[in-house]
Every structure is written in structure tokens, then in C-alpha cells.
Design brief:
By secondary structure, the chain is α/β, with parallel strands linked by helices. It is built from 6 helices and 8 strands; from the N terminus they run H-H-E-E-H-E-E-H-E-H-H-E-E-E. The N and C termini lie far apart (39 Å). The structure holds S-adenosylmethionine (SAM).
Length: 216
């Protein structure tokens, strides 16, 4: 359904993807980005306004959906950032090894089809002292919520073009070659809980974990 994918889905993400609890976390974590930054799956550009233009010298904005890029281009005009759009999937990042200081992924690792390939690609393009900033939804710790996540995953997958509710994102980040540096986790809404369990924090390529999870 190309019309749904290129027109309806971008508008859905734009309208529903940034309620206050999510925006507050974006406001906290996106300003951690510095130097040359790659954001994968930029969507409609909800993070753009939260980057600090004094710290970010260049933003590679990767997004395979042209409808999303159209919306994100509007957000770009609201910032002083030097943005270059890359219209490719996150499994094929067209940057040289060690090209970026920071990678940002918000609600993309929970959507991207070959997530491990994408995480390994992120590790490849990061400098050895670079960092991944993530904010992702996925598998809740409560068995009752997990059962609803399994039941509803097909519907969310359809409506949100590939979104998974049952991925254990921190486990995938570790399997892809990162150590979690700092992380918080919790439900972003009281109801419905199944699409709202999230983790946010930073991960470092191939280092030992430095801190533990702090549930909020
Ligand atoms: C739920 S939206 C999140 C958008 C945005 N990051 C945000 O925080 O609002 C998921 C995004 O991942 C993008 N996406 C899907 N498959 C992808 C892929 N293979 N590589 C990169 N991005 C992808 C979608 O087009 C969409 O923009």
C-alpha cells in the first residue's frame, strides 16, 4: 500500500508520535548529541528542534520514506542545523567507518526490519569514542502486558509500517556490539500499556557496561 506508506503513515507518526511524555524525554536526551551526528529513521523530524546547533556540526538524517522526508524538511527549516538527508534504509548506512560522533535512534530500532544489521552498521560508522543515543519501545517486563503485546503486535505492525512491540531493544543493542552506558525504562502512558514500554539512554561501542538500569 504505497499511498498508506508514503502519505497516511507519515501523518500518523507526525500527529501521534510526540505527546508530552515522549517530548520531555526527547528534550532531555537529544541535546547529548555532539559533533557529526547520524540520526536513523528521522520520521517527520521531531528531534530536530532538540539538537543543540552549537554542539552539532553536521546532521546526517537517514530516512527511507519520502513522505517522512517531506515533513522533516519543514522541521529542518525551523533550525540552524546543517542537515543532509540520506534516503536509504538504516541497514545500509552510506557513511565511512568512524565517520560520526553520535548516532541517534528514537523509535526506529523497534521498527527497522533487520535490526541487528542496522546496529552493527551503527557501530561501524561511530568513532571509537562515539555514542549511540536511543529511545525505543518494546517488550514490557510484566507478563500480562507481554501477552497483550503479542496479541496486538500484528495490528501495530500494519498501522505503523513494521513496528514491533516485543523486541528486547537493550538485548539487541548488546548483541550488536554495544555496552549500555546509562539507561532508564518505564511506561510512557498508563493506558494502553502494550505500545508504551520504553527504554532511553546511551550505549558505547564494544565497551563494558558502566551503569545499571534505573526503572522510572
Ligand atoms: C515510529 S517512526 C519514528 C520516527 C522518528 N524517529 C521519531 O522519533 O518520531 C519509525 C521510523 O523508522 C523509519 N524506518 C523504517 N524502516 C527503516 C529502515 N529500514 N531504515 C531506517 N529507517 C526506517 C520509518 O520510515 C519511520 O520514519
Amino acid at each position: 500500500m504505497p499511498f498508506y506508506r508514503d502519505h497516511i503513515y507519515p501523518s500518523l507518526v507526525h500527529l501521534l508520535g510526540n505527546p508530552a511524555p515522549i517530548r520531555r524525554i526527547r528534550e532531555r536526551i537529544v541535546p547529548w548529541a555532539h559533533g557529526t551526528v547520524l540520526e536513523i529513521g528521522i520520521g517527520s523530524g521531531a528531534n530536530f528542534v532538540h539538537y543543540d546547533p552549537a554542539k552539532v556540526s553536521k546532521l546526517y538524517a537517514l530516512e527511507p520514506n519520502p513522505g517522512m522526508i517531506r515533513l522533516a524538511d519543514r522541521q529542518r527549516r525551523r533550525t540552524a542545523l546543517d542537515v543532509e538527508f540520506l534516503d536509504l534504509p538504516g541497514e545500509r548506512i552510506p557513511l565511512a567507518p568512524g565517520a560520526v560522533d553520535t548516532v541517534v535512534s528514537t523509535f526506529t530500532l523497534c521498527t527497522i526490519p533487520d535490526v541487528l544489521e542496522a546496529i552493527r552498521g551503527i557501530a561501524r560508522v561511530l568513532k571509537p569514542d562515539g555514542k549511540l543515543i536511543f529511545f525505543e519501545v518494546g517488550l514490557a517486563p510484566d507478563p500480562r502486558v507481554q501477552r497483550w503485546q503479542v496479541r496486538l503486535e500484528g495490528l501495530y505492525h500494519l498501522l505503523f509500517q513494521g513496528l514491533y512491540l516485543t523486541r528486547d531493544i537493550p538485548a539487541l543493542i548488546r548483541r550488536g556490539g554495544f555496552g549500555v552506558q546509562q539507561m532508564e525504562a518505564g511506561y510512557l502512558a498508563e493506558f494502553p500499556k502494550s505500545p508504551s514500554y520504553a527504554w532511553w539512554g546511551t550505549a558505547l561501542p564494544q565497551v563494558r557496561e558502566e551503569a545499571s538500569t534505573t526503572p522510572s
